[in-house]
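Suppose a colleague, Dr. K., hands you the sequence of a protein chain of 362 amino acids and asks what its three-dimensional shape might be. Before reaching for any lab equipment, you can write down a predicted structure in token form. Begin with the sequence itself:
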Amino acid sequence: MRTGRPKAPIILSDQEHEQLTSLIRSRSLPYGLVTRARIVLLAAEGATNREIAENIGLSTQSVCKWRKRYIQQGLTGLHDELRPGRPRSISDEEVATLIRKTLNTKPKDGTHWTVRSIAEEAKLSRPTVHRIWKAFALQPHRQRHFKLSTDPFFVEKVRDIVGLYLNPPDKAMVLCVDEKSQVQALDRTQPLLPMGLGYVEGVTHDYVRHGTTTLFAALDIATGKVLTCCKRRHRHQEYLQFLKLIEANVPKDLDIHLVVDNYATHKHHKIKRWLAAHPRYQVHYTPTYASWLNQVEIWFNIITQKAIRRGTFRSVKDLTSKIDQFVQHYNRKTQPFIWTATADSIFEKIKRLCQYISETRH
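The predicted structure, expressed as tokens, is then:
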């Protein structure tokens, strides 16, 4: 038995039904708007306000409100109305002045503005400055480092290496090779305090050095697998030993393309002599100051963050053992890095950076 005042029926046209259906299928619209569209569709099917409320999990008053809004205003009625608020306490000109001061000036007693210092200078509240900086993505306390390559053959080298990444040669393996030197075996002076509910892991700020190792790595760009070896030093002798390790692990029927940087060890005459005796090797040198072009640097960052930086090691042997353990687990589930940047896109970014630098010098 139905009780209460009879409700006005909702009759939808095909277009209205299609619009409401598309709303409830959306994954990007606000949850409230999607729920209101469901209310209207259920009401159009003849469901009562109580039935709709139980189905959706709202009160009958809310269901009645949005049902009435749709009857009176249509689809527009399902959107939230603008709510009255306090008038703005800062004008557009004051916002513009604050932005210009942040971008074009520096405080007399420091290298960059802080929220407190510029709020005091501009006679504004700290929350106001913080909101404006956040709205315009201004972060005076942060810096981003860069270095332009001075290599006279920068263009040729970039096209060569990017070409290897985007169009690897047939019957060949492309290996990004480098060494991470001075990996320290650091041990904290006191035991760690384990992480718990409400507090983070505790470590002492000081540590004991137990020596260093050099991590040689070769990244296969096709599979993402890494071949590694730890050595006490990083002279040409150790690099040559690592090349022999690569030679022993790569099938004999494949050519090998090595992407390496310009470190003197990689160009030692004994290294060149060994490469000449093994003609299946082709070496591709990255431009000067362009280590970002070598994909193995990405992997070095991964192992640093996940296995080295926060690790505690009682000896170099312990350090190398844990590096080997990490590499074994990494290679079991690894995937190749997806390189998408073309040579032209890289040159375009560098062009914009150079133009910006030249503009700031005027």
